[in-house]
Amino acid sequence: MADKKLDPVAATGIDVPFIEVYGAREHNLKNISLTIPRNQLVVFTGISGSGKSSLAFDTIYAEGQRRYMETFSAYARSFLGGLDRPNVDKIEGLSPVISIEQKTTSRNPRSTVGTITEIYDFMRLLYARTAEAFSYVTGKKMIRQSDEQIVNHILENLNGKKLIVLAPVVKGRKGHYRELFEQIRKMGFVRVRVDGELLELVPKMQLDRYKIHDIEIVIDKIVVNADDRYRLSNSVQNALTHGKGTILIQDAETNETQFFSRFLMDPESGIAYDDPAPNTFSFNSPYGACPNCNGLGEIQELTEDAIIPDKTKTIRQGAIAPLGEYRDLWIFHQVEALLKEFKAKLTTPIKDLPEDAYKILLYGLDEELEVKTKKGTYAVEFEGIVNFLRKQMESDSENIREWISEYTRKVTCPECNGLRLKKESLHFKIDQKNIGELSNITIDKLAAWFEGLEDRMNERQNVIARELLKEIRKRIGFLLDVGLDYLSLHRSVRTLSGGESQRIRLATQIGTQLVGVLYIMDEPSIGLHQRDNEKLIKALQNLRDLGNSVIVVEHDKDMILNADYVLDIGPGAGVHGGQIVTSGTPEEMMKSGSLTADFLSGRKGIEVDKTKREGTGKELKLFGATGNNLKNVTVAFPLGKFIAVTGVSGSGKSTLIHDTLYPILNQFFFNAKRDPLPYKKIEGLEFIDKVIEVDQSPIGRTPRSNPATYTGMFTDIRNLYAQLPESKIRGYTAGRFSFNVKGGRCEVCEGAGMRTIEMNFMPDVYVPCDACKGKRYNRETLEVRFKGKSITDVLEMTVEKAVEFFENQPRIQRKVKVLNEVGLGYITLGQQATTLSGGEAQRVKLSTELSKKDTGRTFYILDEPTTGLHFQDIQHLSEVLRKLVDKGNTVLIIEHNLDLIKVADHIIDIGPEGGDAGGTVVAQGTPEEVAKVKKGHTPRFIKEELATSIYREKQAS
Questions:
Q1: Do the two domains 298-412 and 605-698+836-956 of this chain adopt the same fold?
Q2: Quick one: angle between helices 838-850 and 810-821, nearest 10?
Q3: Residues near 746 by Cβ (< 8 Å), separated by ≥ 6?
Q4: For the domain 147-262, what is the CATH code?
Q5: Average pLDDT along the chain
Q6: What are the Cα distances from residue 573, in Å, to 33, 44, 334, 586, 708?
Q7: DSSP 280-311
Q8: Which family does the UniProt entry place this protein in (predicted)?
Q9: I need a surface site. Which of 493, 522, 564, 606 has the fewest CB within 10 A?
């Protein structure tokens, strides 16, 4: 490592060259001891479930965290009593540890790329200190003047004119203002100007309370001349005091008026802004947020189609969905009375109602409506169904708000156009751009705008902005380095993939410029196209060159080959793993006979079928998709084939599939509420009978959820235990073996097996239950055994063992077998959902769908199914997906992994770039056809991959 920029010892202050781990036994680790070189880029690789994360996160990171916690006071540590030290003898040479995992940072809609990278915070400060204000009425530049400047301006420009000096006290507000007039009279003033008309103040004076008024106090009438400067100055100061910093001058002859202010003011219209502060530009602060959408950029809007979905129905039959079928309710009596006015009834179909009746039904009536009931006749104001529901949206009841949300859709806020800020904040500009516009453009365009900004700013702005611009450019540069140029600062964090949020945190960490830290990362290459992989590797090497140690848990070929040191963990998964198979430089590791080395060196590989599937000959065709960055895309999906959708990050793959195609299919087959992004039409829906999407969201967010419950297998297992002779003697039903209901479960932990310790300001901590020691059930339930195993033993059994254990139980075995086939033989049936990785959760979902009896006309959509998978597991997965397609189904994957892309029958490549430069179909066809295309980035990589691939003559049946 002769090219290091820093001496590691000098940089870190730790004079040991290695991190030494002795006797690691966490989860499936087999009492391993190892040395990891410090200040190098180290990759942990190996088959999925072999123990990489157990070593990196549950041992090394957990010990680093524990040592950090030890620095807390005894009082603070008393809250952390349930935190155990990892199962390891000792670790030496450990630096402070920072973990960057795949978990999405926040589910909060207010958390954006700009806020978590702090770029937006620096931009708020930049705008608060250097931006110029413009009027939202006239568009002219706002000005501020001192008292002396106002007097000088009047003397220079209005000399010899007869002026009225006015102090504005009310501007554009309703009210009678009786008390205000009385107060002004008591201060000694005799005249006021009301709505442009000069009036004498008289006792009990008042205005029309329902009209909007402007009121100014007449401070002085004066003929301007230089000799009378003292009087003019006094009048101006007096007016500014009463007008709270604003003054109005009226020409007594022409009635022309002119505003002046100590604050930012538009001299033409008289509107003034408060002095800007950083929170003026914060959409999370009431000082800056758009009042209409509260800074979210979108609002819930009630839609007529959702309120009245079927216009052929009558109101009595329930045509108005929120009200349902007719009942003896006050609202139905009002509707009945309204329809009577138009000679219609509750039994009249909505489509046959007169246009006026329909509009009034939805939006209300201005005059009073006479409603007759058994109890008498009432005159009421009918507000309309839409207005009634709008009021309910503000209800304190969560249930009511949830009920209303069924009839709404999210639309861009019409007031701020999705920019999240109030109009005053959006009229502060630097180089003709407001902060909202900058936040909505892609990072690469933002970087280009900041380039050379000093030349477009004045001298004063440059002095203030110098240091701020350095910080902003540096942070934007880090985002570009990790391949996130297609994101915008306003992009909500909850819409990011695991890989994207992880790379944002990586960019933020590089920005902190810490030295002597151990960074541990979980597959940062997820969701990254090969083109952007080089940028990521360079970013990690920069982190190392600063004087840090970097450990990456990774399966990516490029990452492994560019590492300084590789640790291959295995040889198998779960109980078959947990050992160091080989370690050393990538060159040394390649020479070993490990499974990883075989795939890296090309000795093993996923075979490609020479003959592609012909499919069913039918296709699903989507016309004119224009959501987000899609450029009027029309694309055909051939049915009965294995389809791969590829393209660089941000090119529009997710927009096309997740946000357009899937919602269309979901609405068609299952009447889903979520609307697809804009498109013209779709053809071929009759050729498929259902759609199934398998994404990477967790299968559950609590320890109660596990693979057995998610796949539905646990219901069959409970039924099996309830049928045992012992259960029948004791009168136990299937419910006795559920850990979610009272009866057979441990009541101390309520069947969770874990107790939740609330940490107040920190995430909750789960510790094993003291009573049942994590077994979830009480003693009596555990006495019932099948083949010598209690229900807890079954939950603790690996999938692999369960295949043998349930060999004579076909219903259970079918589900267990599929879990085993997708490469999850090492997980236990009762493993908590919270401990499964994104890739594992996705494969549990996939196996659930595969174990169902398919119809041969199903359309499967998978989002990066190779996440967290070793080359060997990808081979298993490709075989499972091929089988699914061979039955006549269509499998569509969004993927970057070339091992899976090359075995597809049909590729649709979106691009050519990310963001605005993407959104078109670059290439489509078989992998061999796409490889010949000269445009875009994917064909080049497919060509290289196919050149080294092994072809097989016959398709797997």
A1: no
A2: 140
A3: 753, 769, 771, 772, 775, 776, 777, 778
A4: 3.30.190.20
A5: 88
A6: 19, 14, 68, 22, 19
A7: GG-TTSTTTB-TTTTTSSEEEEE-HHHHSS-T
A8: Belongs to the ABC transporter superfamily. UvrA family.
A9: 564
What CATH code would you report for 605-698+836-956?
Answer: 3.40.50.300
Alpha-carbon torsion (608, 934, 655, 115), positive or negative: positive
CATH architecture of 18-104+496-596: 3-Layer(aba) Sandwich (3.40)
Using the structure block, give the residue that is written with the tokens 């072809």.
Answer: 951
Sorted by sequence, the CB contacts under 8 Å of residue 139 that are 6+ apart come out as none
CA atoms of 266 and 134, how far apart (whole Å): 8
Contact in structure between 479 and 118 (CB atoms under 8 Å): no
Percentage of the chain modeled with pLDDT above 70: 95
Structure tokens at 797: 């059994």
- Residues 653 and 646: beta-carbon distance below 8 Å: yes
Tell me the mean pLDDT in the region 406-426: 91
Matching residue, tokens 């005159």: 379
Predicted local confidence at residue 467, as pLDDT: 94
Domain ranges of the chain: 18-104+496-596, 147-262, 298-412, 605-698+836-956, 700-835
Residue range 84-102, pLDDT digits in tens:
688 999 999 999 999 887 6
Measured at the CA of 122, the angle between CA 121 and CA 125, to 5 degrees, comes to: 90
Please give the Cα distance from 487 to 483 (Å, whole number). 10
Q: What is the pLDDT of residue 508?
A: 84
Separation CA 171–CA 155 (nearest Å): 27
CATH architecture under which domain 298-412 falls: Orthogonal Bundle (1.10)
> CA 77, 81, 87, 90 torsion: positive or negative?
positive
Give the percent of the chain with pLDDT over 90: 52
Q: What angle do CA 186, 189, 193 make, to 5 degrees?
A: 120
Which pLDDT value is given to residue 13? 46
Closest to 110 (Cα-Cα) out of 325, 250, 239, 283: 283
Nearest to 868 by CA among 841, 889, 886: 841
pLDDT attached to residue 759: 62
Q: Based on the number of CB atoms within 10 Å of its own CB, is 2 exposed (0-12), middle (13-18) or buried (19 or more)?
A: exposed
pLDDT band at 80 (very low <50, low <70, confident <90, very high): low
Select 700-835's CATH number: 3.10.290.10, 1.20.1580.10, 2.60.40.1080, 1.10.8.80: 1.20.1580.10
What's the rounded mean pLDDT across residues 790-816? 93
Mean pLDDT of 609-628: 93
Coil, helix or strand for 450? helix
Total-model pTM: 0.78
Tokens encoding 513: 């410029």
Sign of the torsion formed by the C-alpha atoms of 693, 697, 701 and 707: positive
Q: Which helix (H) or strand (E) holds 161?
A: none
For 93-121, what is the mean pLDDT?
85
